[in-house]
Design a protein that fits this description.
59% helix, extended
Length: 466
């Protein structure tokens, strides 16, 4: 009898097939059973004798199990007792509903085991944070590494390597940016768990119903291997599906949605606080670039100096928005005008210090970093109107604010693009994406890297100062 190999649906199983049919159409004996084991570099399947006893019991982490949650194992049905290699493409396909009922139950159970283990790990971590007031060692280690790297950069530039407490706290805020990605991943796994529950609710009754092979029908992979339900089975499945949908699935999805919204709003609040210190993170990245340029030798200096200018440009744009990002004054306060004037002076002072890099590169890097450290310290203290002392601003020409001009230009170009695309009389389904793409293109051309501010923040949030 030819063997029939199928890939496991999320699990490697060891059981005897009930009324199984091989790929050549001959029915296998109900007494035949098989086990699977994983070998390095390939998949090996073993068929055991016809007395119904398993030749080897599957073992997972030293424990005999009938379900091994590993998607890389397969099983094989056959009468040969010698080990046989499962061909990588020797797959006999059957319709989804034709899968033997025990496969549904075991596959759903194995997948739920994996997801529940992840959910329990995430939940226990959050309970540790909230109940015990403790923090995992790994995030703390990453935060300490950021602080140590920042101190090393200051020592390389021969600057005092003792940042203030506020500055250290703002640098540690970088870990908050990772929580958003972790929350998204966590909720995706929970929705996947709900999907597995749906499969279980619908699939488990298959084992209890009269499932029999269809006669005279060809399976997808060849041979009359397709299964079908009886009329009574189909009626029961419909009832179970509707009841399970309204009693189990929908309430669970509502609970998950409520938990997701609650967690999302809480994390967004933390993220909003973290974004206040984006300027500090950008300054830390610029100081790190200055330290690398200071240590570099030969032709590597060229690339490192260019990196300093690119990162400094982001800092300058952040300084122009400091009165908004620090969120210490109302939106329409009369104090904003004085703060904007001071910010333009600070930007001019930094540009003057950057120009000095062309004449004295190493000393200029240290002077630029000293100014950046002062700005970061004052910003964390909330002194947005005194980011630099008056002595550092003497003889500085204020940088003109081009934000209004850019906004008006982008608005005019966007209106022109929308009007032009509308006059082309394109299909409705194509017109909307083109208009959206044109608007994004206009914003990207005018604002440059500022249009990718969110991507820059996430890049900084990956940890480590670049």
């Amino acid at each position: 009898m030819s063997r029939a190999c199928r890939p496991a649906l999320g699990a490697a199983i060891a059981f005897r097939e009930l009324g199984g049919v091989s790929s050549d159409g001959r029915r296998g004996s109900a007494g035949w059973s098989w086990t699977c084991r994983r070998r390095t570099g390939r998949q090996a399947c073993e068929a055991s004798g016809g007395d119904g006893s398993l030749g080897r019991k599957p073992v997972y982490r030293g424990l005999p199990l009938s379900v091994i949650p590993s998607p890389q194992l397969a099983w094989e049905v056959g009468k040969s007792s010698a080990p046989q290699r499962c061909p990588s493409r020797g797959i006999m396909s059957r319709p989804l509903w034709a899968t033997p009922p025990l496969v549904w139950e075991i596959s759903a159970g194995a997948a739920m085991m994996e997801i529940m283990r992840d959910v329990i790990a995430q939940t226990s971590r959050r309970l540790t944070l909230r109940v015990l007031g403790e923090f995992p060692a790994e995030p703390l280690k990453r935060q300490d590494d950021v602080i140590e790297q920042f101190k090393a950069d200051l020592r390389a530039l021969r600057l005092p390597d003792v940042p203030s407490g506020r500055l250290r706290v703002s640098l540690r805020r970088r870990s908050e940016l990772r929580k958003v990605r972790q929350l998204i991943s966590f909720m995706v796994r929970r929705y996947l768990l709900a999907f597995i529950v749906i499969i279980s609710v619908i699939g488990v009754p298959l084992k209890l119903l009269n499932v029999k092979p269809s006669e005279g029908r060809e399976g997808v992979g060849g041979g009359p291997g397709a299964y079908r339900l009886t009329e009574r089975g189909e009626e029961v499945i419909n009832v179970v599906s509707v009841v399970g949908l309204w009693v189990i699935v929908i309430p669970m999805l509502l609970l998950i949605l409520a938990f997701a919204l609650r967690s999302l709003f809480r994390e967004l609040g933390n993220l909003r606080v973290t974004l206040r210190y984006t300027l500090v993170m950008q300054i830390a990245a610029t100081i790190s670039a200055c330290a690398r340029a200071h240590r570099a030798g030969g032709e590597r200096v060229t690339g490192e100096m260019r990196s300093v200018s690119k990162k400094l440009a982001r800092v300058l744009r952040g300084i122009e928005r400091a009165h908004r990002t620090r969120r210490m004054i109302p939106r329409h306060s009369h104090r904003r005008k004085a703060l904007k004037a001071h910010e333009r002076l600070v930007v001019g002072a930094l540009r003057r210090s950057e120009a000095a890099l062309d004449t004295r590169s190493r000393d200029g890097l240290a002077d630029l970093s000293a100014l950046l450290i002062t700005i970061a310290e004052r910003y964390t203290e909330g002194r947005v109107g005194a980011l630099l002392d008056d002595g550092n601003l003497e003889g500085v020409t204020p940088e003109p604010s081009r934000e209004l001009l850019r906004w008006l230009t982008s608005l005019a170009l966007s209106v022109f693009a929308i009007t032009t695309i509308t006059l082309l009389d394109l299909p409705t389904g194509v017109e909307s994406p083109i208009i959206t793409g044109a608007g994004l293109l206009v914003v990207g051309l005018l604002y440059g890297p500022s249009a990718r501010r969110a991507a820059d923040i996430l890049e900084l949030g990956r940890g480590g100062t670049q």
